Amino acid sequence: MTATTATDTAQGEASSGTDPDALHAPVIEWFHHNARDLPWRRPEAGAWGVMVSEFMLQQTPVSRVLPVYEEWLRRWPRPADLAAEPSGEAVRAWGRLGYPRRALRLHGAAAAIAERHGGEVPTDHHQLLALPGVGEYTAAAVASFAYGQRHAVLDTNVRRVFARAVSGTEYPPNATTAAERKLARLLLPEEPTTAARWAAATMELGALLCTARTPDCGRCPILEQCAWRRAGSPAHQGPPRRTQTYVGTDRQVRGKLLAVLRELPGPVPRAALDRVWHDPEQRSRALGGLLSDGLIERLPDGRYRLPGSS
């Protein structure tokens, strides 16, 4: 059975065999007692704090995000504060979080919020989706976590919880499917505040207990309802799971080049960049990628700088 077929089967189970209400109460109760005290979950974070966290947490663990997030909100407590700075300052402040295009997208979203919405993160899901760099997941997460709205929030952790608890498979498909989205909507509580709590609780359950490699099933609040456990915890049968490499890749070279530009106050000569990597062909390719992505700029005199920096 393919991963997609397994998820399609899960849809039928969710509508005919699985009682969503039986999952909601224990998971939300577990979350009430076990949720981590994270700054973007505090009331003072506001919608902007939630949005910043969602951009930063994509493919990046909480431990790496926390110090950058706190410094970011100290420096730019409102979208207009960030929008007033050159986009290169967002790239500089992003530090070593990785995937620095997220910094440009967040800067673009901040500029759009300042221009279109009076500096306030919009509450409307469609207006959130219209912001630069904001996709379905981020729009749903901000609407849910910041404004208590009813949306299916599907990140990797939630997808894994649903795959195991309802589909009976160890892992979800590599890419989010329409079937998974339908299943998430079927499992969503009707009351908006409860739905928002459910979204946060299932995400936390996947992060803390229903982890990818070593799930702590003995502490799971829905162990008895879990289809994967009832089936004997069968090993993954779908396509091989994606693994990310870093050492020796263009991503590593790009990171080294950006580090030089972040750490020096002004434009940087090409010679300073050439020293960071031994392979001239790969170095040139990585530099070209940074230029085409808008993460750096080349000045007429041949020096390089972060976009908009002096």
UniProtKB/TrEMBL annotation:
Pfam families: EndIII_4Fe-2S, HHH, HhH-GPD. Its EC number is 3.2.2.31. GO terms for molecular function: 4 iron, 4 sulfur cluster binding; 8-oxo-7,8-dihydroguanine DNA N-glycosylase activity; adenine/guanine mispair binding; metal ion binding; oxidized purine DNA binding; purine-specific mismatch base pair DNA N-glycosylase activity. GO terms for biological process: base-excision repair; mismatch repair. Keywords: 4Fe-4S, DNA damage, DNA repair, Glycosidase, Hydrolase, Iron, Iron-sulfur, Metal-binding. Residues 56-208 form the HhH-GPD domain. Gene3D superfamilies: Helix-hairpin-Helix base-excision DNA repair enzymes (C-terminal), Hypothetical protein, domain 2. Its cofactor is [4Fe-4S] cluster. Residues 1-18 have a biased composition (Polar residues). It catalyses: Hydrolyzes free adenine bases from 7,8-dihydro-8-oxoguanine:adenine mismatched double-stranded DNA, leaving an apurinic site. Residues 1-21 are annotated as: Disordered. CDD domains: ENDO3c (cd00056). PANTHER family: ADENINE DNA GLYCOSYLASE. Belongs to the Nth/MutY family. This is Adenine DNA glycosylase. The lineage of its organism: Bacteria, Bacillati, Actinomycetota, Actinomycetes, Kitasatosporales.
